[in-house]
Design goal:
The complex is a heterodimer. Chain A is mainly α. Chain A folds into two domains: 1-124 and 227-257, no CATH class; 126-224, no CATH class. Helices cover 74% and strands 0% of the residues of chain A. Chain A has helices at 2-6, 16-19, 22-38, 42-58, 62-71, 73-89, 97-123, 126-135, 140-168, 179-185, 187-210, 229-251. The longest helix of chain A is centred in the middle third of the chain and has 29 residues, at 140-168. Chain B has a domain at 237-270. Chain B is 38% helix and 22% strand. Chain B contains eleven helices and ten strands. In chain B, strands 6-7-8-3-9-10 form a six-stranded mixed beta sheet, sandwiched between helices. In chain B, strands 2-1-4-5 form a four-stranded antiparallel beta sheet, covered by helices on one side. Classes of the chains: A mainly alpha, B alpha/beta.
């Protein structure tokens, strides 16, 4: 779990990717995901993943990016199994090569999605994301809530670990017993976690109110986002490539797996 | 007895928290782990009951390698009171909060009742028995955290930063509790950078810096070594600061009560 979270956490760097306008990065990630969404062909998804890998190499976050993808393996396997079960539950279906292959395609698509998320969050600070969203006319209240959620996730993960440590030190054994008793064992972990989350959100609310949150409708920033020539070039290249992808999808009959 | 043999520990993010720690703690000792933030104190504590297993080297608790047993079975011997233990409460009443661990360790009901009663009395929490743990004050919460651990009477009690956020009165109470528990034969291990608090207890001190033990000795020796303390980002206790400036009277830096020093200054000035 924590490996996935680390792969979705900003990792400082001074590469071209880090310096790109967050809006451009957001668009690129979305386009990559959309490409993965309109195609099911393994070859195309591989190309998408390869592009993402290349981007992560340029941004010097490849190992973290790879770990996210690797860490998501259980989730991906789960999606694969669910798809297989779903296919089997449909009338007239039997477990053949075709149904397994299709489930595999869907699971593989998830890899491309996740990898795209990862590269975006690894190279963009929550503030930059906030600025990008504000520029896109998302009300600041929602932006703030979203950023805080991202911000607090790693802290929450850390807190969860320390609660587990503390309760294990009080003799709590999480591994023993059947499903129901095991779930019951999580009560001593979930209650403190929830209490702490609530307490923290009250504290945060007080802290931002002290700093006049929401006093002015239009928030200004010390550092304004500006599209540079490089941003526009990268943006136009990616849009061109995506248009090409759509064109191929609509008008070219592909004969690849 | 607890033995650390060349213990190294690296966190998943690559941070080397322990870099070859060798340590022996006899039963019945009071030991203080001191050092700056990130020196490895908490990491070391978490090795005591197997929450963390050494990356290399080994930790023996009464001769048992912590890698060969479970946290639950080690916890019966080593009770750890974490720094933010008061954020881990979950039961509707204080009684149940203390009984939780005893239930986990499968004590019979009558023993549980007796032990919880004893722990409540020892920590002066009897009147709150049926109240919610969330309604306690900061100091009371800290005492409840201690009561939780002492209830099952582990041979070793480890305290992580027990004085953070506590006022002078609570600190004094804490010292009393530590002394009492030690007199009952318990080994006490305290991790702290509260120099004055430790100076009052005068335990054996293990000074840590950057994952290594840099000094291991009695409080009188470690806490009067001002250059070494500074190296570990610790200020000497005020009484040591004072006596270190009394060289012209022929007084050496020393760890003693204010009365004793006052008498000595008066004697030298005569």
């Amino acid at each position: 779990m924590s490996t996935i979270l680390r792969g979705l956490q900003f990792y400082p760097g001074k590469t071209v990717i880090h310096k790109l306008d967050p809006r451009v990065k957001l668009v690129i990630s979305l386009l990559l995901m959309m490409t993965a969404a309109i195609y099911l062909e393994v070859t195309i998804i591989t190309i998408v993943v390869a592009v993402e890998a290349l981007l992560s190499i340029i941004a010097k976050v490849f190992s973290r990016w790879a770990r996210t993808v690797y860490g998501a393996a259980p989730l991906i396997i789960l999606v694969f199994l669910l798809n297989v079960l779903f296919k089997l539950s449909m009338p007239g279906q039997s477990l053949g090569f075709q149904s397994i292959y299709e489930a595999l395609q869907l699971a593989y698509r998830l890899v491309a999605f996740l990898a795209s998320f990862s590269i975006f969050f690894l190279t963009t600070t929550p503030e930059e994301l906030g600025m990008a969203l504000t520029k896109m006319k998302v009300p600041y209240m929602y932006t703030f809530a979203f950023i805080s959620a991202i911000r607090f996730t790693p802290i929450l993960a850390e807190e969860l670990q320390s609660i587990i440590d503390a309760q294990k030190s009080r003799g709590l054994e999480l591994e023993k017993g059947n499903m129901i008793t095991r779930l019951r064992r999580y009560i001593p972990i979930l209650i403190p976690l929830m209490v702490n989350v609530l307490r923290r959100s009250y504290e945060l609310a007080e802290a931002i109110e002290v700093k006049c949150f929401g006093a002015k409708k239009n928030r200004t920033y010390l550092r304004e986002l500006k599209m540079t020539k490089r941003d526009l070039t990268v943006l136009s290249i990616s849009i061109t490539l995506f248009t090409l992808a759509i064109y191929v999808k609509l008008f070219v009959k592909l004969n690849i797996p | 007895m607890i033995v650390f043999e060349n213990v190294e520990y690296v966190y998943p993010n690559g941070f080397k928290a322990l870099r070859g720690v060798n340590l022996e703690i006899e039963s019945g000792e009071i030991v203080a782990l001191m050092g700056e933030n990130g020196a490895g104190k908490t990491t070391l504590l978490k090795h005591l009951n197997g929450l963390l297993k050494p990356f290399s080297g080994r930790v023996l608790v009464d001769g048992v390698d912590t890698r060969r047993t479970t946290v639950a079975s080690l916890s019966r011997k080593v009770g750890i009171v974490f720094q933010n233990a008061e954020e881990m409460f979950f039961s509707p009443t204080i009684y149940e909060e203390i009984a939780f661990a005893l239930n986990n360790f499968r004590y019979p009901e009558d023993v549980i009742q007796k032990r919880v009663g004893w722990a409540l009395k020892f920590m002066e929490l009897e009147e709150y028995r049926d109240k919610s743990p969330f309604l306690l004050s900061g100091g009371e919460k800290k005492r409840l955290a201690l009561a939780i651990i002492l209830a099952w009477s582990p041979e070793v009690v480890a305290l992580d930063e027990p004085t953070v956020g506590q006022d002078i009165l609570q600190k004094e109470k804490m010292i009393q509790i530590i002394r009492q528990a030690n007199q009952q034969g318990k080994t006490i291990i305290i991790s702290s950078h509260d120099v004055e608090f430790i100076a009052d207890i005068k335990p054996r001190i293990i000074l840590m810096s950057k994952g290594r033990i840099v000094k291991d000795g009695p409080a009188e020796e470690v806490l009067t070594d001002i250059p070494l303390l500074q190296e570990c980002s610790l200020l000497p206790p005020q009484i040591v600061s004072l006596t270190s400036r009394l060289d012209f009277l022929g007084i050496r830096p020393k760890l003693a009560g204010p009365e004793e020093i006052a008498v000595e200054i008066a004697r030298r000035l005569k």
